[in-house]
User: What shape does this take?
Amino acid sequence: MIANVIGVLFDGVAYGSLLFIIAVGLAVTLGLMNFVNLAHGVFAMVGGYVCVVLMTRAGVPFLATLPVAFVAAAIVGLVLERTLYQHLYRASPLDQVLFTIGVVYMSIAGATYVFGSSQQPVFLPSYLRGQVHVLGVDLGVYRLFLVAVVALLTYALHLLLERTRFGSQVRASVDNPVAAAGLGINVNRVFALTFALGSGLAGLGGGLGIDVLGLDPTFPLKYMVYFLLVVAVGGSGTIKGPLVAAVILGVFDVSGKYFVPQIGGFVIYALMVLLLIVFPAGLYGRRT
Amino acid sequence: MRELLAVDNVTAGYGAAVVLEDVTLSLAEGDSLALLGRNGVGKTTLLVTLMGLTRLHRGSLQFAGANLAALSTYARARAGIGWVPQERYMWPSLTIEEHLTSVARPGRWTLAKIYEIFPRLEERRGNFGNQLSGGEQQMLAIARALVVNPRLLLLDEPMEGLAPIIVQDLMKVIRGLVAEGGMAMVIVEQHAKLALSLTRNAIVLDRGRIVHRSPSEALLEDPQTLHRLVAVA
Ligand SMILES: Nc1ncnc2c1ncn2[C@@H]1O[C@H](COP(=O)(O)OP(=O)(O)OP(=O)(O)O)[C@@H](O)[C@H]1O
Ligand SMILES: [Mg+2]
Assistant: This one.
């Protein structure tokens, strides 16, 4: 029983790590730039399909496909931002919702047309498969790998945002874009690069997550609410908020579905309502 | 002296609303100008028009021989305009030091030199923008504009709301900047006498138009005219 609980907890953490790496870009665009991008999951899906295509059609090993997934999703994000999204920054939230939900359905239709509606396979290398036995508990090797990769990425992201000039320019542009521009920061460029970085991370998460989240054309819709929850519950002050929120959501979702499968998704939504009542601005608000 | 800034027949405002009408002025390299006038006459609007934050309805803006109006706001800062906004506009999630390093451009104003004239900022370098007193905010706003290494510094009511002792300190710093030369300066100030004592020339705005121009010293020596132009009725 104890081993069971630990195993489920661990799965929840791994799942939450994936949610975080996919949603962290949304924390910036939605939480900080106030742009309601419901289509954020599309970038994850792009990353996922890039991995699958490279593996199945070109025989590229799984790990080598991940950087490509990052770059491809970042480029798609950048192009979308420059051509379409930047015109919507000052639009009403309703316009943003309608526009981006349109992008979601177009991407679903597009992915179905190109790849069909079935779940896509992922070929993990043998050293990432199976279980390891730690202190009487069986842990999935791939999930351990996921947690480690996300921990590293999170640390790198933290350094980028808190310790570099680019990071302080991002924060300045978000805090007060007029002052940032007035002091020589190219705010549009900073936002575009940030958007590309967030999209790239989502793409990387999409590739990493094929084995856990699955991959089919409905992916952006299926997980949309989860990504939004990570941001709404976590708040957008730091990357810490979304990280903590993602892990909490991951753990409760997995344990809910494992221990009380008859009520399925109820657990996570009840938790969300509760957290938002207690922390209306999210777990970690931003400095004002 | 070579001309640095030329504002010609500028009419500008917010959206369709016109605030400034037919404003013409010029400023040489290293020169200083006091911009005076009662509340709401358009002093800030003139400065933010130089920064590209209003709608330019008519007229032209030249800076260092280039067409300023064609540049976006960040490019104007990079072209050499240092802006100290009236609202100060600190960045809450940046430390004092990050306020400086995030916008610094190469030139004689380095971090070390800033800390020399504002030791207080060095003491508090790790504090965030939302943890500063009014005086510290103003010092930081000026310091942040200086590290851009501008050829023209725009100061929008730098003394507003500060304790007299801090006003004295800041006066000393600004006087030092003027004396050093090399950087032109426009100072907007409610305390007209302070601004006049710091600058070479003065203009007075009323309801968006220039109603007076003279050397600062002349206006300082003519209290009646000064009173008529800027005193609150
Ligand atoms: N963002 C804005 N949108 C619309 N109108 C504005 C805006 N900012 C200022 N105004 C209007 O423009 C006019 C000039 O304002 P401005 O701030 O330039 O005056 P000011 O001389 O700087 O005044 P103060 O001494 O109070 O700072 C005022 O009537 C003001 O209401
Ligand atoms: Mg003003």
About this structure: Chain A touches chain B through 22 residues (CB under 8 Å). The mean pLDDT of chain A is 91.
